[in-house]
Amino acid sequence: MSASACKGFTLIEVMVALLIIAVSLSGAVKVMGNGAHNASLLSQKTFAQWVGLNQLTAVKLKGTWLKTGESKGKTEMANQKWQWVQKVIKTEIDNVNRLEVSVYSMPRTRGDNPQATVVGFFAKP
Question: Where is the Type II secretion system protein GspI C-terminal domain (predicted)?
Answer without folding.
Answer: 42-122
